[in-house]
Amino acid sequence: MAQTLETFLPEGSLKRCIEALTEAAEEISSLLRKGAGLGGLSSVNTFGDQQLQVDVLADQIIETALQRSGVVETICSEENSKERPCGGTGFAVAYDPLDGSSIIDTNFAVGTIFGILKDGSFIGHKGREFVAAGCFVYGPRTELTFAVSDKEYAHQFIFIPTVSEDSTSLDRWKKNHIFTAIESGKLFAPGNLRSTVDNIGYQKLVNYWMSNKYQLRYTGGMVPDVNQLLIKGKGVFCNPASLSSPAKLRLLFECIPLAFLIEKAGGRSSNGSVSLLDIPITGTEERSQVCYGAKEEVERFDAMVGQMFS
Ligand SMILES: O=P(O)(O)OC[C@H]1O[C@](O)(COP(=O)(O)O)[C@@H](O)[C@@H]1O
Hints:
Pfam families: FBPase, FBPase_C. The protein is of the alpha+beta class. The longest helix is centred in the first third of the chain and has 21 residues, at about 15-35. An 8-stranded mixed beta sheet has the order 4-3-5-6-7-8-9-10, sandwiched between helices. A 5-stranded mixed beta sheet has the order 12-11-13-15-14, with helices on both faces. It contains 7 helices and 15 strands. The protein is globular. Strand 11 (about 185-190), helix 4 (about 200-210) and strand 12 form a beta-alpha-beta unit. It has helices at about 5-10, 15-35, 55-70, 200-210, 220-230, 250-265, 295-305, and strands spanning about 40-45, 50, 70-75, 85, 90-100, 110-115, 130-140, 140-150, 155-160, 175-180, 185-190, 215, 235-240, 270, 290-295. Helix 2 packs antiparallel against helix 3. The N and C termini lie far apart (about 50 Å). It folds into 2 domains: about 5-180, Fructose-1,6-Bisphosphatase, Chain A, domain 1; about 185-305, D-Maltodextrin-Binding Protein, domain 2, CATH 3.40.190.80. The protein binds 1,6-di-O-phosphono-beta-D-fructofuranose. 1,6-di-O-phosphono-beta-D-fructofuranose binds near residues 99, 220 and 222.
C-alpha cells in the first residue's frame, strides 16, 4: 500500500502546518478546475502586478487554513508581502499562492510555492535554515513536491480525493516519487529570454544549449518548469536579469523555497554567484535572478552569466 503524507510526517506542529497547506491546495485545485476567478481585478499586489481574482482567492484560502492550524505565528505572501501575525505559535510561512498568473487563462499547469521557518520572522535568516519548503502543482494531476530539513531528498505526493471513514485528510495524499539526484542532461527551460538582448552572457549560454542540441521545455510557469527537473532527474531552469529586463522573481516567495527543494534532491541553485539558500533575507520584497539544475549546468550559468545585472 502506497505511503501517505499521514504516515510520512511525524506527529507534531510541522505536520499540522503541512496539513493546513494541503487543505488549502485541495480547495484551490477545485477552484481552478471549475475555472473560477479568471477575471482580472483593478487591484495590484505589493509588487505592482495586476491581481487576478483567483490570486486573491488563493491567498485568502491559504491564510485562513494557516490561521486555523494554530501553529503559524507569521505569514507573508506574494499578494501581500508584509509579514503579519497569523494568530498561532511556532512557524513563519512565506508563500506564492498562485504562481503562473500569466498562463492560467491558457490552462497550463500552475502552482503554489511555500517556505516554512521555525521562527516569528524571516528577516535575518537564510533559506538554509528553513524546516520545509516545496510546491503544489495544479496540472492534469494535483501534486505536492516538498522537502523537510530533517529528512533526506525531496518527495512527491499525488492528491487522490478518496473519502473513507477511517482516513485522515493527509491519507488523500499518496506517495508517488522520491527525488534523489539531478544529473547533467540536455533539457533547458530558459526564462526571461528577452534579456538576451543586453545580457551577452545569457545569449552565449542559450546558443550553447541550442548548438549542443538541448531539448527546450519551457511553459512560462516556474512551478511546472522547475518541477520537471526533479521528475526528469536532469536539466537546467534559469530566469536571468539584464538592464532592460531586470530580475522579476521574488526571492522569499519563489526563489528560495524552490532552491530548498532542488538542493534536497541533489541539484544546485544559484543567483549567478552563490546558492540561493545562502542569501541573507533582509526584506520580503527582494527579487533575484535564478538558476536551478544539475551541478555542471549551474556552474556553467555562473561562469557564462554570473551576477552582472542582478
Ligand atoms: O516571462 P518570463 O520572463 O519568461 O518569466 C516567467 C516567470 O514569471 C512567472 O510567471 C512569475 O510568476 P507570477 O505568476 O507569480 O507572477 C513565473 O512563473 C515564470 O517562471
